[in-house]
Structures are given as C-alpha cells and as structure tokens.
Write a structure and sequence with these properties.
This protein is of the alpha/beta class. 25% of the residues lie in helices and 30% in strands. Bound molecules: adenosine-5'-diphosphate and magnesium ion.
Length: 142
C-alpha cells in the first residue's frame, strides 16, 4: 500500500516529509531507503531521526552502522550499505544480522536494495531525482 507519494522542492521539505512519516513508524519496524547517490536518502534519515530527538552529524563515510537513542527509549539504527560488497560475513561482523534479528528498535537502511534478497522491510522509501532540487518520494507499506 502506498502511504506517501509526494514531490519535494528542497532538502527541508524532504526532511519534513520524513518527520511526518516517522510518526507512523513503530519499534521493530524496518525501513528500506532506496535511490541513487545524491537522491536524498541521508537527508530523509536526518528528518526521520529528528522526530526521535536525534541530530545526525556528518560521520566518516566508512561507518556502516550508526546507533542512536530515541527520545522514546529505544534505539534507532541507521545502516548505510553504500560500500557493502555482498559478502554475508561482513553483515555478521558488523552486527547487522544481529540488529535485524533483535528488532529492538527502528532500523533504517540506505542502499537497502543490496540486501533485499535476504531481508524484508515494513516500509520502503523510494527517492527519485526529478531535477536539481526536486525529488519524488514514494513510501510503501507491506
Ligand atoms: N528536494 C530535495 N530533497 C533532498 N535533498 C535534496 C533536495 N534538493 C536538493 N537536495 C540535495 O541533494 C543532496 C542529497 O544528499 P544525500 O541525502 O547525502 O543523498 P544520498 O544519501 O541519497 O546519497 C544534498 O546535497 C541535498 O542538499
Ligand atoms: Mg547517504
């Protein structure tokens, strides 16, 4: 079921949509975020975690798993699989398999298409670049 299908005209608007969406997402849910480089996946995550009282800071790009504490008292995991090579051992070593199995918080995954053969999401966010500042954001619930 499509729950959002909107166009945004700025990073601000994308963050705002993500904040609205965040109100619906519950502990235990998994959110896949897909879209090419520069689509706005991280901007989306930034808006999403703001709802949880978390301020995303620029982190070294080699970091794959970020764990934040929500103001609601559970973790929000932000996983960025940009550099994921498809090696399952890497998922194990980085604790990602553990995160998916525990589901003790909310899991947000950038470049989720790289693991969608192994895991399912509660929601999938697809961000498409329309022009310089325009993005189409489509969110589906399964
Ligand atoms: N409508 C928009 N929504 C989100 N980002 C936008 C938008 N318009 C321009 N941008 C820019 O696109 C870039 C998105 O970067 P980022 O979120 O890091 O992308 P990704 O994580 O998908 O690679 C940022 O530089 C942001 O300022
Ligand atoms: Mg990103």
């Amino acid at each position: 079921m499509v729950i959002f299908d909107v166009e945004t005209s700025s990073p601000d608007e994308t963050r705002e949509i993500a904040k609205q969406f965040a109100e619906k997402v519950k502990k235990g849910d998994v959110v896949f975020i897909e879209g090419e480089l520069g689509a706005g996946k991280t901007e989306f995550v930034r808006g999403f975690v703001l709802y949880h009282g978390i301020r995303l800071i620029r982190s070294p790009s080699f970091t794959v798993v970020f764990e934040h504490m929500s103001r609601f008292g559970y973790p929000v995991y932000h996983i960025d699989l940009y550099r994921f090579t498809g090696d399952f051992m890497e998922l194990l070593e980085r604790g990602i398999i553990d995160i998916f199995e525990k589901r003790n918080g909310i899991v947000l995954v950038e470049w989720a298409d790289r693991i969608e053969d192994f895991y399912r999401s509660t929601y999938t966010v697809k961000i498409e670049i329309i022009s310089d500042a325009k993005r189409r954001i489509k969110i589906e619930k399964y």
